[in-house]
Amino acid sequence: MRTLVVASSNKKKKKELINLLKGLELNVQSIDDVDINVPDIIEDGKTFKQNAIKKAVTVSKIIKGFVIADDSGLMTDCLGGRPGIRSARFARAKATDIENNKKLLRLMAKAPEKKRSATFVSTVALAENGHLIRCVEGTCKGRIGFKPIGHNGFGYDSLFTPRGYRLTFAQMKPDFKNRISHRSKALKKARKVIAGFIRRGL
């Protein structure tokens, strides 16, 4: 059975990615399961796509098997797309979720309900042997609330209510969130690519 390594050091994101990849005829592992020193990868791309590709391709050069990497974030309309690719380090380098959420709420303090639209974006890159196989994207539109609500999830989940729902991502059960989230949409596309490779014996 071939191996697929999830290239993420974010424990909560890594767990979510592994759960979304269940059912494939692959030995799915996290990067921490592989007994190889992986160098720190500087996410200096200007887009989610550039960062996801860099992570997947870099790790695939030193790890045997498929490597999948995700770069995701929140884009708000009233802030011109911010925090965007800086979502994880919006408040500062190595910021906590609480710090990032506080900064976002502060910057959006004067934005009325109708101006609080936002989109979660996830770009997933699949690579092997230092070569990009495919890059796919998933999005989820919604709005930003006025205060954090809920205790599940991570990142900006407690502020984000997806369109058509009354609960924030952080109020939803993980299994339900994983059916509608930006990351699940991207990984559904990636699963089809991986399944095709397995089916063809590539």
| β-strand number | 6
For the record, the CATH architecture stands as: Alpha-Beta Complex
Which CATH class applies here? Alpha Beta
Major sheet strand order: 2-1-3-4-5-6
Number of helices: 5
Mean pLDDT: 90
Question: How would you spell out the order of helices and strands?
Answer: EHEHEHEEEHH
Question: Number of folding domains?
Answer: 1
Query: What's the story with the biggest beta sheet?
Result: 6 strands, mixed
How large, in whole angstroms, is the Cα Rg?
17 Å
Question: How would you describe what is shown here?
Answer:
This protein has 202 residues and is α/β, with parallel strands linked by helices. The radius of gyration is 17 Å and the shape is globular. Strands 2-1-3-4-5-6 form a 6-stranded mixed β-sheet. 30% of the residues lie in helices and 24% in strands. It has one domain (3-200): Maf protein. The mean pLDDT is 90. The longest helix has 19 residues, at 182-200.
